[in-house]
Amino acid sequence: MNCRRWVCLLLTVAIALSLAGCGSIYDKEYVVENDYIPSVQIPEDPGDKIAVHDFNGLKRALLALVSEGSAEGQLVFDSEYASDVAEDMASACWQVRTQDAMCAYCVENIAYELSKIVTHTEVKVTISYTEAGENADSIVHMQVAAGVDQLLRQALSDGRTKLALLIEHSSYTAETMGDLVIGVYRRNPELLPQAPGIRVNMLSGSGTQRLYEINLDYGMDEEELAARREELAEFDPFEADGLEGLDQVHLALAVYEYLASHCTTAPNGPGSVYSALIEGNTNSEGLALAFVVLCNRLGLDSQIIYGQKNGLNHSWNIVDVDGEHYHVDVDAYSEAWPEQGFLLNDEAAWLTYRWDVYSYPRCEGELLRDRLFPGPEMMIDTAAVPDETTQEQEPVPLPPQADEG
């Protein structure tokens, strides 16, 4: 009797549970698995957002933001991105800032904020720039250094105080770039009243990428620089002399005699074009630079030499007349012996002068003193000049700039 009562009680409980709808113990028999479609996906056209698929693409995206000068950007990493986004962001920001010359120059800091959204990750990037980076659009981009001379010449002509060059493949050091600037000035001394002060900062990127920040100091304010340039531009010592019809030899002679008679020189005098042409007081470098300017105006090709005279640092010129190169030293002129500094070939000049014979054109023209300066023959040293192909005799070391004693 008792067993029958317990069986009835158990049946009653089971029926009650089934009527109450409690079927959790049968759930797995009714589960249907379908692909879940999220409510948010990466759009095919992300608009202002940059889609990132791998680490190299991440670095390219950061570089693109910097090159555009963007203060903010939005990156989208899809679900198939293979690496850890947080780790890659930290690594990419560090590499971009340290291995790219432009970013090292322009970027002060890169911050980012990650947001995980179901199937992808979005990163908000915030970039702060250095003072130089605020003017990143003025950086000149070049693949190779070809054409740098023209850019430097234009910068000097415009009176710019700063020039930034990003060259993807360059072997120039900061010192080499500074030498290029001063070389451009010395070939074109009419651009400025005096040589500029030059300071070059160089930043290296990966490979041979280099960024050069060239700072130029003209030694005067913008107004004074413009005024002196105007004085030089208007200065024309031959305006009333009627040099038309003269051959190149006599044009060079006119420049030689004018500077010799209108400039006084001293070893410690100011060595600038302005001091020579406008003030009439200079040193050998100022005379040589002025000779280049006046020859240029008369259509003659001339360049300045930095060498030695009687053992002291000295500057003079090489001029091309009728297809031959000659030495000209205005500072050597004297009324008693005017020919001693004019149209010398290497053999005649080697008596008094020393220069790096490998860095300047050979001067092998016939001496013209008998035609130009009738009178007693000038005594010259017939000592042989070092031949360019001779390896045993080294040229005399020369300083980069004239520094007369």
Description:
With 405 residues, this protein is an alpha+beta fold. It has helices at residues 2-19, 55-67, 85-99, 101-106, 148-158, 174-187, 222-234, 248-262, 273-279, 284-297, 346-349, 369-372; strands spanning 49-52, 72-77, 107-117, 120-129, 140-144, 162-169, 197-204, 210-217, 264-265, 281-282, 301-309, 312-321, 324-328, 353-354. The strands form 4 sheets. It has a 4-stranded mixed β-sheet with strand order 1-2-4-3. The chain has a 4-stranded mixed β-sheet with strand order 5-6-8-7. The chain has a 4-stranded antiparallel β-sheet with strand order 13-12-11-14. Helix 2 packs across helix 3 (85-99) and helix 5 (148-158) crosses helix 6. The radius of gyration is 39 Å and the shape is elongated.
Please, how many domains? 3
Look at the structure and give the CATH class of the largest domain. Alpha Beta
Helix tally?
12
Please mark out the parts with pLDDT under 50 across 5 or more consecutive residues, or reply none: 13-46, 378-385, 388-393, 395-405
Question: By helix and strand content, what is the structural category?
Answer: alpha+beta
Would you tell me which CATH topology of the largest domain applies?
C8orf32 fold
Q: Kindly estimate the percentage of residues that lie in beta strands according to DSSP.
A: 15-25%
Q: Which strands sit side by side, in order, in the main sheet?
A: 1-2-4-3
User: Mind telling me which CATH architecture of the largest domain this is?
Assistant: Roll
Q: Termini distance?
A: 137 Å
Gyration radius, in Å: 39 Å
